[in-house]
Write a structure and sequence with these properties.
The structure is a single chain. The protein is α/β, with parallel strands linked by helices and 546 residues long. The protein is built from 17 helices and 25 strands. The strands form 5 sheets. It has a 9-stranded mixed sheet with strand order 2-1-11-10-12-13-14-15-16, with helices on both faces. The chain has a 7-stranded mixed sheet with strand order 7-6-5-3-4-8-9, sandwiched between helices. A 4-stranded antiparallel sheet has the order 17-18-19-20. The relative contact order is 0.08.
């Protein structure tokens, strides 16, 4: 018997899952709630809708239409949030440009995406001026500035200024519904080799991600974002839709606070003044905030921060608790929009060690995320908490390809599952623990050593602010682990002290005897990628031959 379908009424409306409808409930129930930018801008959701309309009107006037790629280069601001909505709601494609890339890579991504309109903060004018000859598709540049900076004359390549163009535009722009499978956003991943790879997402994918990204918070009865929270993103808005959470915050009609270019003291001032209760960031930013909070003796009680991008270590989690902040691990990727899993909040856990262990686990998959671990032949492996394999995924919001790169796309989706390139275990209760990146696993003496597990151990040593562990070539063992650390305070970390911690873990059965470090190097700072992750490829290049 074939599948059966309902026969809709002649006038039944085919309601599409498009980004504009994420705003409907907020306008109906939270129209007076605020959106704040630093100490400069404060308006409500009703005015937010007017500003979205003005931006759409202004963009249409200069030639934007359905299918046009419109790029944004700005710090985290109310303007970026307006772009998150106005551009996709037009049927155009929002391109969030990674402003931390080298100018040559920014030029490559803008050209590859065929961006026709660019909204750019004046801080990035020198970059755009230098690469303009490499952007054949670019037709219009709109300047973004703050406060009195708007009165400064714009360079010749700028068509107009954001606020002036918006002020002259119609706020009552009428957005039409359209196919939910139309592209809404695009951006570029930042690997350590080759050109950046483009990924893209449809309206349907972003709406489903938004609904399911909220679900784990509701199901855990704590540690999440919900009604009454004040939200401030601390993940760059160019990076995977700021983890998709501005869309969640808007769906819920929350008060939202945007910090602009990151400054720990401004972030702390905003958190205290606006009573921010939920944020998200990478470990580097969190550590910077905790350091500033300690210097100022600021109490962060009531602030929950989801930490991702790089693993949340037990040491950092405990530092947050000392200041009153609850840090919770989140796991995702550029190719997954990004949310894959969130650590499960356990209200019944009173022991701090058990609480920290739960919070630093990569997490439980969000609803509608199918996850399994497989061997190199794609055979499924048991979810017993011990067996390690590559984590592969299926979900309705995963990117379906790398734009214009068929070979990489086929490798990403080999065997009909999306390959994360992460080595993981899955517990019987579904908790995912990422053990390492495939490329970062240290193969020594016939054993695979997790660099992440070693980093988590070493981070608790006296005098260590940050740590990275890499494998360096060894004539007999293949590879041996080496630690690279940044000092904290006056204590001087030593190889002997670090290996004492690892030896204790070996004695407890938590680490292999091959995990003892061969070398320890103290550095001023660890190299990072454009999204704040430790660049282990560069570290291997620096130390492999020494």
């Amino acid at each position: 018997m074939p599948l059966r379908f309902a026969q809709p009424a002649a006038e039944a409306y085919p309601f599409p899952l498009t980004i504009g409808h994420l705003l409907d409930t907020a306008l109906a129930t939270s129209a007076g709630r605020e959106i704040v930018y630093r100490d400069q801008v404060r308006y409500n959701y009703r005015q937010f809708r007017e500003r979205i309309g003005r931006l759409a009107s202004a963009l249409t006037r200069i030639g934007a239409e359905q299918g046009t790629t419109i790029a944004v280069m700005d710090w985290d601001s109310h303007r970026y949030l307006e772009s998150y909505f106005a551009i996709p709601m037009l049927g155009a494609v929002l391109f969030t440009v990674n402003v931390r890339l080298a100018p040559a890579q920014i030029a490559y991504t803008l050209a590859h995406a065929e961006a026709e309109i660019l909204l750019v903060h004046r801080d990035f004018f020198p970059i755009i001026e230098a690469i303009l000859p490499q952007l054949p598709h670019l037709k219009a540049v709109i300047a973004i500035a703050d406060g009195m900076e708007m009165e400064i004359a714009c360079p010749p390549f700028v068509l107009g200024e954001y606020e002036a163009l918006s002020a002259a535009a119609d706020p009552s722009f009428q957005f039409a519904d359209f196919d939910e499978n139309a592209l809404a956003t695009t951006f570029y991943t930042t690997g350590t080799t080759g050109d950046p790879k483009g990924v893209s997402y449809s309206h349907r994918q972003i709406v489903l991600h938004t609904l399911c990204a909220k679900a784990p918070f509701g199901s855990t009865r704590g540690g999440g974002m919900g009604h009454g929270d004040v939200y401030m993103p601390l993940t760059p808005m160019f990076h995977v839709h700021a983890w998709g959470l501005p869309y969640v915050a808007t769906l819920l009609g929350l008060k939202q606070v945007y910090p602009g270019r990151y400054d720990p003291n401004i972030i702390l001032d905003l958190q205290q003044r606006e009573a921010v209760s939920f944020s998200h960031c990478v470990p580097t930013i969190m550590r910077m905030i905790l350091t500033a909070a300690a210097q100022r003796d600021v109490d962060l009680s009531g602030w929950t921060v989801k930490v991702g991008g790089s693993p949340l270590t037990s040491d950092l989690c405990r530092e947050g608790l000392k200041r009153g902040a609850q840090l919770i691990s989140g796991y995702g990727m550029s190719e997954t929009a990004p949310m894959i899993a969130v650590a499960r909040w356990r209200n019944s856990v009173e022991d701090e060690d058990a609480h920290v262990a739960a919070m630093v686990a990569s997490g439980v998959p969000v609803p509608m995320m199918s996850a399994r671990i497989v061997d190199s032949q794609m055979n499924p492996l048991p979810a017993d908490g011990r067996t390690q394999g590559e984590l592969v995924l299926r979900s309705p919001w995963l990117t379906t390809c790398y734009v214009g790169d068929e070979a990489a796309s086929n490798e990403l989706w080999r065997g009909g599952w999306m390959h994360t390139r992460d080595v993981a275990t899955i517990d019987p209760d579904g908790t995912i623990i990422v053990r390492d990146r495939l490329k970062d696993v240290i193969k020594s003496g016939g054993e695979w050593l997790s660099s992440l597990a070693l980093e988590n151990l070493i981070s608790g040593a006296d005098g260590i602010a940050e740590v990275a562990v890499i494998g360096i070539p060894h004539i007999h063992w293949g590879e041996r682990p080496m630690g690279i650390v940044v000092r904290s305070g006056s204590a001087v970390p030593t190889l002997e002290a670090v290996n004492e911690l690892i030896s204790a873990a070996v004695a407890r059965g938590e680490a292999s005897r091959f995990a003892l470090l061969d070398r320890l190097q103290i550095v001023e700072a660890l190299p990072r990628t454009s999204v704040g992750k430790i660049d282990k490829k560069k570290l291997r290049e620096l130390f492999a031959d020494k």
